[in-house]
Write a structure and sequence with these properties.
By secondary structure, the protein is mainly α. Among the domains are: 109 residues, Ubiquitin-like (UB roll); 57 residues, no CATH class; 92 residues, no CATH class. The protein is 43% helix and 3% strand. Strand 5 and strand 6 form a beta hairpin. The chain starts with a helix and ends in a 9-residue tail after the last helix. The N terminus and C terminus are likely disordered.
């Protein structure tokens, strides 16, 4: 009964409608049906798993993978990756309506990113009347949907305006300016223009147009831009200077040409031009910037222009007012007059690079008529802002040349130019000309002499001990590492290593009783270790893995480590029985041995962690096992078995989804992608699974069905997988033996120095000691494979989840581990037993990459994903003799590293490098995924709070204090 009550409370009944807006230009604003039907949503299930039921109920003519849920009437979009309960703080209005007995309305409509992509595709690929109609409709689109503006700006919509407007005539440019004016009315849109200096450059370029209407509109938008905040004035100057460098046109020449009446006389144009100049000068914080602008204007005849207009009897008073303000500003900065009503009260500050006494470059001031006292000053047409502390920053944006921009995408696409819908300004990451920024094999912590090695590529690199291969530095491998630590008997004393009588058999075969042979040349054969009890029986002949040491014979006292480990600590007294961790305790005693990584083992250097034993006792209370529940099985047995077999070689399904969305090649290798391609669900399978889930909502899906359902929730799945396969197969990678060896060397160093990894081990050890009621000094690291499988009995959260929460809450300086040990991850993919003859070349051509990118870009517009193609690694040669030395020393160092991690010496030889690195890599990947999930929830809530501050707000609603002190940046990326 209690379970049924909780389930009833978790159901929220809403009314649902759909809005057919797949084509934004023909969208209606009336959702269907007029009488919305009710639909029950589970508060604890992610919305992505429930949206299919809404889509089916409404029979909406929308693609399911492109749908989003929007709340009415406030228009907030729900996060489909979360459940309603997880975003309860962000949908307070929905819960308020439910609390008042109302049924809130949810609207099923096309995702914002898809609609924006459709707009950009239409603008890029349309011509003639169709393009004119589309441009004309944009202003109304932005007026009707306030959420469209920030998404359009963040999806490189401003770049699209520039590309289309540069090729179009003045009529099309005027339509674009109308739409841009609507964008700039919103705070999010204005912030997008501030971040996109190319738009400011383009607006300034249009001030030199032959169309007076275009010039007037461009000047008005620039005035609005400068008026919004004082920080925008330096951005306008930066845009003018950048354009001057790229085109060779004098700065501010477009404005002086207007004042010189080269394109005819128009008083309104003159007033707008002078207004823009005065507002720009008024906001400059330092004299250097002020004089840079005014000197440039004076060199182009500003004094003569002023004299001409001020002397004319037909000049309108408003224009004379603007010239008067300009002249007073000059004299005020020169110190020749006190502040006037429309001039800054204080002179601008002098920068460190400015010479004392700099004044305006005007040859003579006597020939200007005395107009300051006679000019009308009644119309207040300008408001000069207070001084700002931010000076003009140097230009950092790339030069923008309007003549170099083209509309056709064929200039950047090596494939199918007519079908590309991407911005032509964005070079394709799949272009053969793209290059990777840095080699993954470049050491990040190599010695200082590595730089000199790379600077002289002609002679072979040399180091002190001759262990260098091209630009890979192995100079810290010393001669003493020619001796394997496992062959030194000091490491074997008291460990209980199975051995025979002779002990002189060279590695790698296991020792055989009674067999003695010539010892290997170094080291000399060690003597048989002294033991207080008879040695254990030897392994069988031809053995593989060494058997663990047998228990001591009857009557023999137990070892100190064993007795201390099994004696329950008084601090671990428990009232309830808890879940046990089935790890292998380290029985070996501490020894004073020292290696490169430190003295003793890593466990001896760990700090003691105090955990909340009461909380752990509650979370991990041992309860009776639940009976296996029924599962929904839809697929035929052959298909289901194939998927289940494939899943055994793949990471967890949530890791797969994150990896596919982020194109994380470290998470899934090429074989994994090819395996997933064969397991991609068909439309029929997806429909059957969804129907079965709707028919039996309380019954969980089978593993294969759940796997396919998760894959189907990924937008553009087939395109993403094919594009990823192309990315991994495009380059020809020549793997040299030295590369994985160098990765292993770096990986051991990275892992040994990683503080977060040590804190994870310490936390797991503290939790496990409490749950097991023991005082173990450490555990074998292969237990890290099982950390995600242990779950608490209350919330069913994994032990890794609780460990991650503990570290995030108590150690703010921790990292995700995974990003700090890339060498370990790369080493996990290498078969070190076959390095001697490992030369693999992979090459494949892809003819449909641009089509796949086009489909993927509908849902994902991250620029980083488009630029992750790496180029080929070529000409990696090696010296055979050095490689043998490096290989021997690296493997011996790996054995020493395992001993440092507490691995028993008798099992070190049987531990595979790849298997060990895979354990560490997969655990760190799981930890990173869990940590990102925890941090993402915190970030989403913070971003939503910031986004709501500017959502739908107009620039006229922003307070003056905020506009004068700096632009409101919140919500720009929301």
């Amino acid at each position: 009964k209690q379970g049924g009550t909780r389930k009833a409370m978790a159901i929220i009944t809403c009314r649902v409608q759909y809005l057919e807006d797949s084509d934004p230009f023909v969208c209606t604003n009336f959702p269907e049906p007029r009488r919305p039907p009710p639909y029950d949503l589970d508060e604890n299930i992610a919305l992505i798993e429930q949206i299919a039921g809404v889509h089916k109920l409404l029979e909406a003519p929308l693609k399911l993978e492109e749908c989003a849920l929007q709340m009415a009437p406030n228009g907030n979009y729900l996060d489909l990756d979360l459940s309603l309960g997880e975003q309860k703080d962000d949908v307070e209005q929905l819960y308020d309506d439910v609390g008042r007995g109302k049924k809130p309305i949810l609207i099923l409509r096309t995702q914002l990113s898809v609609r924006v992509h459709s707009i950009l595709e239409k603008l890029y690929n349309s011509h003639g009347p169709e393009l004119r109609r589309s441009l004309f409709s944009l202003k109304q689109l932005f007026e009707d949907d306030k959420d469209l503006v920030p998404e359009f700006v963040n999806s490189e919509g401003l770049t699209c305006f520039i590309k289309v407007g540069t090729e179009a005539d003045h009529n099309y440019q005027n339509y674009i300016l109308r739409a841009l004016s609507q964008i700039m009315l919103f705070v999010d849109g204005m912030n997008g223009v501030i971040d996109h200096n190319d738009t400011v450059q383009w607006l300034y370029t249009l001030s030199g147009s032959l169309s007076r209407l275009v010039v007037k509109t461009a000047l008005k938008l620039l005035i609005v831009f400068v008026e919004y905040t004082e920080l925008n004035s330096p951005l306008l100057i930066q845009a003018v200077n950048t354009l001057s460098v790229s085109t060779g046109v004098k700065p501010w020449s477009y404005l002086t040409e207007i004042l010189e009446e080269k394109n005819g006389s128009d008083t309104e144009l003159f007033i707008l031009t002078m207004n823009l100049i005065n507002k720009t000068l008024a906001a400059l914080p330092d004299q250097d910037s002020f004089y840079d602008v005014t000197d440039c204007l004076e060199q182009q005849g500003m004094e003569h222009i002023m004299h001409k207009h001020m002397s004319s009897k037909v000049t309108e008073p408003d224009l004379k007012q603007q010239f008067t303000i300009y002249e007073r500003a000059l004299r005020h900065e020169d110190g020749e007059m006190d502040a006037a009503p429309h001039v800054r009260k204080e002179r601008r500050k002098v920068t460190a690079s400015e010479q004392e006494g700099r004044r305006i470059r005007r040859s003579s001031a006597q020939n200007l008529p005395d107009i300051l006292s006679s000019s009308p000053t009644t119309s207040n047409t300008i408001s000069l802002s207070a001084s700002s502390s931010t000076s003009l920053s140097p230009s950092t944006s790339s030069p923008f040349s309007p003549s170099s921009s083209t509309l056709s995408p064929s200039t950047s696409s090596p494939f199918s130019p007519s079908s590309s819908t991407l911005s032509p300004s964005t070079s394709s990451p799949f272009s053969p000309s793209s290059s990777r920024s840095a080699s993954p094999l470049t050491p990040t912590s190599s010695p200082s002499d590595s730089g000199s090695q790379r600077s002289s590529p002609l002679p072979p690199p040399e180091v002190a001990n001759g262990t260098a291969i091209k630009d890979l530095d192995f100079s810290d491998l010393m001669e003493e590492e020619d001796i394997d630590v496992l062959d030194v008997d000091v490491f074997d004393v008291g460990v209980g290593r199975p051995s025979g009588g002779g002990g002189g058999i060279p590695p790698p075969p296991p020792p055989i009783p009674g067999l003695a042979s010539a010892p290997p040349p170094p080291p000399p054969p060690p003597g048989a270790p002294f033991m207080s009890i008879p040695p254990p029986p030897p392994p069988p002949p031809g053995g593989g893995l060494c058997s663990p040491p047998p228990p001591p014979p009857p009557g023999a006292p137990p070892s100190s480590s064993s007795s201390s480990s099994q004696t329950p600590d008084p601090a671990f007294a428990k009232k309830r029985k808890t879940v046990k961790l089935f790890w292998k305790e380290l029985k070996q005693s501490d020894s004073p041995r020292k290696c490169k990584f430190g003295r003793g083992t890593v466990w001896a250097s760990l700090d003691k962690v105090t955990v909340d034993t009461a909380k752990l006792e509650h979370l991990f209370e041992s309860k009776a096992k639940e009976l296996p529940k029924a599962e929904i099985l839809v697929l035929d047995s052959k298909r289901s078995n194939s998927i289940n077999i494939g899943m055994t070689v793949l990471p967890a399904v949530h890791v797969i989804k994150t990896a596919i969305l982020n194109f994380d090649e470290f998470a899934i290798n090429k074989e994994g992608i090819e395996k997933i391609l064969t397991m991609t669900p068909s439309e029929e399978e997806k429909q059957k699974i969804q129907e079965a889930q709707l028919a039996n909502p309380d019954v969980p899906l089978g593993s294969a069905e759940q796997f396919l359902l998760t894959l189907s929730s990924i937008s553009g799945l087939s395109a993403r997988l094919q594009l990823w396969a192309f990315k991994l197969n495009y380059e020809t990678l020549e793997k040299e033996i030295a590369e994985p060896l160098f990765d292993l060397k770096l990986g051991m160093e990275q892992l040994a120095k990683n503080k977060t990894f040590k804190r994870i081990l310490a936390t797991l050890l503290a939790i496990g000691n409490f749950l097991n009621s023991t005082s173990a000094k450490g555990f074998e690291l292969n237990y890290l494979e099982k950390v995600t499988e242990v779950k608490d009995t209350v919330h069913r959260q994994s032990l890794l989840h609780h460990t991650c929460n503990f570290l995030v809450d108590n150690y703010t300086d921790t990292s995700d581990v995974y990003s700090e040990i890339p060498s370990i991850t790369r080493s996990a993919r290498v078969e070190f037993e076959q390095l001697s003859d490992s030369l693999v070349q992979l090459e494949r051509k892809c003819k449909t990459s641009w089509d796949n990118l086009k489909v993927m870009s509908k849902h994902e517009t991250k620029a980083l994903l488009k630029n992750r193609l790496t180029e080929f690694l070529k000409d990696c040669t090696e010296r055979i003799i050095i490689l043998k030395v490096v290989h021997r020393r690296i493997i011996n160092r790996f054995h020493s590293f395992l001993l440092y991690l507490g691995q028993p010496s008798y099992s070190v030889r049987d531990t595979k490098v790849t298997h060990f690195c895979k354990i560490i890599s997969e655990f760190s990947l799981e930890y990173r995924t869990t940590r990102e999930r925890v941090l993402t929830q915190k970030h989403k809530r913070a971003t939503h709070r910031e986004r709501t501050k500017t959502r739908g707000k107009m620039i006229t609603e922003v307070g003056l204090g905020c506009r004068s002190g700096g632009r409101p940046r919140s919500g720009v990326r929301g």
